[in-house]
Automatic annotation (TrEMBL), chain A:
Its main location: endoplasmic reticulum. This is Trafficking protein particle complex subunit. Keywords: Endoplasmic reticulum, ER-Golgi transport, Golgi apparatus, Transport. Belongs to the TRAPP small subunits family. BET5 subfamily. It comes from the Eukaryota. Pfam families: Sybindin. One of its GO terms (biological process) is endoplasmic reticulum to Golgi vesicle-mediated transport. It comes from Grammatophora oceanica. GO terms for cellular component: endoplasmic reticulum; Golgi apparatus; TRAPP complex.
UniProtKB/TrEMBL annotation, chain B:
Keywords: Endoplasmic reticulum, ER-Golgi transport, Golgi apparatus, Transport. It comes from the Eukaryota. It is found in: Endoplasmic reticulum; Golgi apparatus, cis-Golgi network; Golgi apparatus. InterPro entries: Longin-like_dom_sf, TRAPPC. SUPFAM superfamilies: SNARE-like. The keyword Kinase does not apply. GO terms for biological process: endoplasmic reticulum to Golgi vesicle-mediated transport. Pfam families: Sybindin. Signal peptide: none annotated. This is Trafficking protein particle complex subunit. Belongs to the TRAPP small subunits family. TRAPPC4 subfamily. Part of the multisubunit transport protein particle (TRAPP) complex.
Length: 183, 168
């Protein structure tokens, strides 16, 4: 079925909008604070004044995302049957418009990725040509990129950290651009 | 990961897959029907189910709101409001089908269970046949219909056994 979702990120007028498979990436800590966020979809630019309002709106939206991930995890935990060794976490949430992929660490950090609903591998790669699945990619983003660039940085502070002082973002961009499903 | 018994090759009978629960939630968020569909369904108290029904109802709408992408008019292809369609988790797949009138059919199953969407649509048909046409069943109230329950049970049994009846 054809996905006709349009990004309704804060826009004032409809201009040509490109839809990429990956829309945005957020990283939350265990308390819900946004550690990192990046939007990959191209959208309409706004003036400086609207950008301020946009920032607040985006921050509210992120709180919604975190709250939703948190509550869904509780719900899924009680609905799933007992099975030792099974990963109790939430993998993905799909709505008609897009899919939210989620990777959680034991420490409570969450890497959340919004994509469109195109048929791309989610948990296991279908072939070498399709690249790693999204879940594997999120895992790689945490264990290899985040831990290496941020946690091991000499400027690391556990409460308030300036991510731009590390090279996490360029590494993340390079990694995601290499994914065949990134478009 | 499949649950294998030692000494047996994986056949349909012993690979962990099966339906777990069915919930039907009315348009106000109240749970009007719930039924365990298989032996592996976890035992949950009635109050817990009611709470989960309302929680899911709210989260269904929040998911559409939190998503940066939107469908035109926030309506999906069936004319119903957009919301959670599927949740994949470690030990669970949850699928939800919302009708235009706001009734949500939610089914949970173990990963690897085939035909979950088909069963969900069939349950909607059974709902229309057994529940809506029953003059004693009130809309939006908890469903007490032995006909509906036995129809759901036999549907799940038929699909689980893989009788081959699977229209595409």
């Amino acid at each position: 079925k054809h996905n006709s979702a349009l990004p309704i990120y804060p826009t004032n007028s409809i201009q040509s909008i490109d839809i990429m498979a990956v829309h945005s990436l957020h990283i939350f800590d265990r308390r819900g604070k946004t550690l990192f966020t990046k939007r990959y979809a191209r959208g309409v630019g706004g003036s400086a004044a609207t950008k301020q309002a946009d920032e607040e709106k985006l921050s509210e939206q992120r709180k919604l995302v975190f709250g939703m991930l948190f509550s869904l995890r509780e719900m899924v935990g009680s609905l799933a049957p007992e099975h030792k060794g099974r990963d109790p976490g939430l993998h993905s949430v799909r709505t008609g418009a897009g899919t939210l992929h989620n990777y959680e660490t034991v420490s409570g950090m969450r890497v959340a990725l919004y994509c469109t609903n195109d048929p791309i591998p989610t948990t296991t790669p279908t072939s070498a040509a399709t690249g790693p699945s999204i879940r594997q990619a999120l895992r790689h983003i945490y264990t290899d990129l985040w831990v290496d660039s941020v946690v091991r940085s000499p400027l690391y502070r556990s409460n308030d950290m300036d991510i731009s002082s590390t090279n996490f973002e360029p590494k993340l961009d390079a990694y995601l651009n290499a994914m065949p499903w990134f478009k | 990961p499949c649950k294998l018994q030692t000494g047996l090759t994986p056949t349909r009978a012993n690979i962990a897959m099966g339906f777990l629960h069915l919930f039907i939630i009315n348009k106000s968020g109240g749970l009007i029907y719930n039924r365990p569909l298989g032996p592996k369904a976890p035992q949950i108290g009635t109050n817990e189910f009611l709470r989960m029904g309302s929680t899911f109802h709210s989260l269904h709408a929040i998911a559409a709101e939190a998503c940066p992408l939107r469908l035109p008019g926030n309506k999906n292809e069936y004319g119903a409001d957009d919301g959670i369609e599927e949740i994949q988790a470690g030990g669970l797949i949850l699928k939800c089908f919302q009708t235009r009138t706001g009734v949500k059919f939610v089914i949970t199953a173990e990963p690897g269970t085939p035909d979950i969407s088909y069963v969900l649509k069939e349950i909607y048909v059974l709902y229309a046949e057994c529940t809506l046409k029953d003059p004693f069943v009130e809309l939006e109230m908890p469903i007490r219909s032995p006909l509906f329950t036995s129809a759901v049970d036999s549907l799940v049994e038929r699909v689980d056994k893989g009788s081959g009846y699977r229209p595409r």
